[in-house]
Specification:
Largest sheet: 2 strands, antiparallel
Number of strands: 2
Strand content: 5-15%
Oligomer: single chain
Strand order of the largest sheet: 1-2
Length: 148
Amino acid sequence: MDPMSLSADVIDAVELLAIVFGALTASAFASESPDLTFLQWRVLLLAVRSPSPPSVSGLASNLNVAMPSASRMVARMRRRGLINLEADPRDGRMRRVVATPAGRELYERIATRRRALIAGALSRHALPASFASSVHEIADLLTAPTRH
């Protein structure tokens, strides 16, 4: 589908969801870890949820930040005990970013808080049966360009 053929209403609606979910996430980690930044949350999310632990250069690419910025963020999060660097089993020169037990526990607390905020808001409304599959489809479409 030609991106220009999408209605402005659809694009505005998806953009609004992104803004709202960003705010819900910020609210969740503000209540659980007020000094955690949004980028640090994303590092934690990638360290916990990625199929294989990301490298520091992979983090930099995924976060769209320069390698020195990613390295400093990783160092700060290591000092906080949220992540560690481990040697890649296939290439000992490469370091992978992995969540520590404390990092995983913080991730779970924030994710649980965010899910509770979402559930609280959505429970007040009847949603169509197709809602979940539509959201998954939109998420797949939005992340497809980044899956190279």
